[in-house]
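(Protein data)
===
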Amino acid sequence: MHFNTLVHFRQQMYGCFERSRDALFNLCDALVSEPQARSLPELSLSVFFQRRWPSVYEALQDGRINGERLRTVFVQALIESQPADEPIWVGIDSSSMERLEAESSRDRGMIYVPNMPHATKPVSVGWQFSTVMLLPEQPSSWVGVLEQRRIGTDQSAIEVGIDQLRALVPQITRPVMVLADRWYAVARFVCACHELGCAALIRLKRNRKLYRAAPPRKPKQRGAPCKHGPLFQGTRPETYGPADAEWEGSDEQGKHVAVSCWKGLHFREAPLADVCVIRVQREAARDTKRDPRESWFIWTGSPDVPLEQMRPRYRKRFSQEHGYRFLKQDLLWAHAHLRTPEQVECWSWIVACACNQLLLSKQLGLAVLRPWENTQRTVTPRQVRRVMPCILQQ
């Protein structure tokens, strides 16, 4: 990659700003190059924001961004930067933005707030966003944002996620692999992946009920044919039966890992969408909620699933958690106290533009490291962000 690639991406991004484009573009440059800012007004102190601090809020209030066109720009730029012989790994998940005291803000809903100390009910009020991210080969914060969309109070995260995949997958000419958390292990999402022709590896709740194929109809049998076969449920070992495929090996610590697969299962609401249920048992796990000794997944791709690759594949999804942390802690995604949902949506697109510029700038090989930071490790987005003022000047 050379500077012309980044210049071309920035020109296309600028063309997607339909109103107040100069102010929005300055705001994006200030965000990507000002790591010391801890609030929106402080971004106006950047040398790349050629306006006074009230213009930060005016840009988000008056600005208009063509989301469909910007999504196409993201897909073209980020997919081209991936190795040509590798499938495209995307993660889909939702994250919340708390706005408890903004009583005049529209369309707020109840959101889940994780890791609340001393809280009896980890819920609050705010907005929720569904994000589709391009995941790196190794778990890290180097993610690309392909789509950001707010989840309205009359919508669900699964409904919005399906709409996002339907808009993104047809634009990608290479095989797409979707990684998702256990909330997406429902019939609607599985059917959507089958329709789009993309494989999905989704974590599964242990108590979810699936069914085997219906037995053949007996001669002279009365009544409607049976639609479902015997039950399969992770909490009932008597429903397992013999596994269709098994694999045993060792993890990075040399501890025993066993993977079992049951094929030809389906959800009650989608009898025609077959999935494979995969159980991963790890000896080295601490058997806690975050590190369970037994994990369950469903796979919607080819039945000839390589079991030894299932666990490394799903580990890619944790990059989405690192990406969310970087968006919120460094790029101030959740620190912007805006008034209307439209302003929050505009700000989310600006944050996505800054994140994707950092991902493209990584290939330039430039970074600023502190004296105490390890020079042998792969550079982080935070380290590349420190050198962005020099890159933008060039």
Q: What stands out?
A: The chain has a mean pLDDT of 91. The first strand starts at residue 17 and ends at 19. The two ends are 15 Å apart (CA to CA).
